[in-house]
Specification:
There is one protein chain. By secondary structure, the chain is of the alpha+beta class. It has 2 domains: about 10-120, Jelly Rolls (Sandwich); about 125-200. Helices cover about 45% and strands about 35% of the residues. It has one helix spanning about 110-200, and strands at about 5, 10-15, 25-30, 35-45, 50-55, 60-70, 70-75, 80-90, 95-105. The longest helix is centred in the C-terminal third of the chain and has 94 residues, at about 110-200. It starts with a strand and ends with a helix. The relative contact order is 0.13. It comes from Loa loa (Eye worm).
Length: about 200
């Protein structure tokens, strides 16, 4: 067996057969009313008779299918459970044959359920996006209100500073006027005393 990969409802598996007596069997679980298509094909070689047997869990279905380079089965399953898929090859003029097993299964009930889950997920995603948008709007509104409050505080602070400056200027002016008045008074008194002394000396 070389390895395999699974893609959704499709399974691809590569394996090698080295003898015509060799029988390789694989098992797959299918749901009721699953539409399936199973084929086994030869890879990189021609003119090989391929035999494939499909057997249901109750063995009501147990049939061989054959073909040159490919054996194929398709249909709607009327029984749920593990199916057996066996194959062998009439090997001629080669040491081994590489085969590819392809299983395609489509269950409408599972598909409908998956569609419903996807729809619910999309609805949840839309609800989350709406919540995020509302949160962004609230944050923007709060930021604007905070900016307005800060601007109002700045205005009040500017008014308060202006009032303080006015009061300080008034006090400074009053001090200057008082100082000037005192200086004038002292100078006048000084000159008045000087004049009296001059008169007495005469």
């Amino acid at each position: 067996m070389s390895g395999g990969q699974t893609f959704g409802f499709i399974t691809e598996l590569f394996f090698d057969i080295f003898s015509s007596k060799e029988l390789n069997c694989f098992y797959e679980n299918f749901l009721l009313y699953t539409d399936i298509s199973i084929s086994i094909r030869a890879v990189d070689i021609e003119s090989q008779m391929i035999h494939m047997r499909i057997r249901s869990p109750s063995k009501i279905i147990s049939k061989w299918y054959k073909g040159i380079n490919q054996a194929e089965f398709s249909g709607l399953l009327r029984e749920e459970g593990v199916y057996e898929i066996c194959t062998k090859v009439d090997i001629t003029s080669t040491s081994h044959v590489r085969l590819m097993l392809i299983i395609y299964a489509n269950h409408q009930g599972s598909k409908n359920k998956a569609d419903q889950i996807q729809k619910e997920n999309e609805q949840s995603t839309n609800n989350i996006k709406e919540s995020i948008n509302r949160l962004r709007e609230k944050i923007a509104t709060s930021a604007f209100a905070l900016k307005q409050l800060k601007s109002t505080r700045d205005i009040h602070l500017q008014i308060k500073n202006a009032n303080n400056i006015d009061i300080f200027s008034l006090m400074q002016t009053t001090v200057i006027l008082c100082t000037a008045f005192v200086q004038v008074f002292i100078i006048r008194k000084f000159f008045s005393n000087t004049s009296k002394n001059i008169i007495v000396m005469r």
